[in-house]
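Cross-check.
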Amino acid sequence: MHSYLKSIGYSNITTKDDEQKLINEIIRYANKKSMISISQTKDDQFAEFSLEIAPGMGVTVRGQIDEQDQFHLDHYFPYLTPRVVTSNEETFVEKKSENDSYGAMCEDYRLGVALIFHLQNAVDYLRVNKRRKATSFQCPVRVSALASEGTILFPAVKTAEDVKTVNEETKQFAKMIAAAKDGDQEAIDHLAIKEIDDYALVNDRVKTEDIFSIVDTSFVPYGMESEVYRIVGIILSLEERTNSKTGEKVYLMEIYCNHIVFDLCINTKDLLGVPEKGRRFRGVVWLQGCLDFDR
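Predicted model, tokenized:
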């Protein structure tokens, strides 16, 4: 079973039979179907079936349709359609080795780490790639996240001057990262010194302060999977949605984290605390997203 099915209200999928019934239902009642030929010599097609179970969220099944019009399952995944543009930086797309899915990596310097996510609109990518034979794209990136569990934290106390200072520092940090990537030795040295100073400052303050009063938001790779991160982010907006098939409630949040914004979905049963605008979400999330190739 997919680890994040429960994030969109499918916590009742616990056996292989349940999983197969869900896959069959998606293929039969899909409200969105996309196909593209993947071979010059055969009639095989890459096929994608999606069934929406609440506004903007559902499950996608992918596989191949052979010459006899038979569908062969490759993989499936729960999805949350991202509503806001997260980044406009260059993004690289690469096929995964284990199945017919695609991963994307966006070099957004505000984060300090590469933004790696599961590509939702793979058919769109294959169509564009057929014409351009490109693996990198300069287009808007929209990212969303599914969380299997999470905790609500109170907001950190900040003044207007604190916010202004942080924003200025972020701009300078992004410029330094870009310069360091281009081989600027002065920028590399500056970043190394800044990392040492920040580490010393946090170590000194953590003796008398809680770490979450020092670190407002964070975005850190988690575990062995490249698309999974541990985050702390500020809740910008919040709404509750219902899985039309199971009746389970989920929270849909817009999250501000390390100067980027994205949508996040979590089952209400798996969230500890009361979410409200301005409070913070802490948890492990799986990132997915779309590239707006037409823009």
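The chain has five helices and 15 strands. The helical segments are 16-29, 122-132, 160-181, 185-205, 211-214. Passed to J.P. for a second look.
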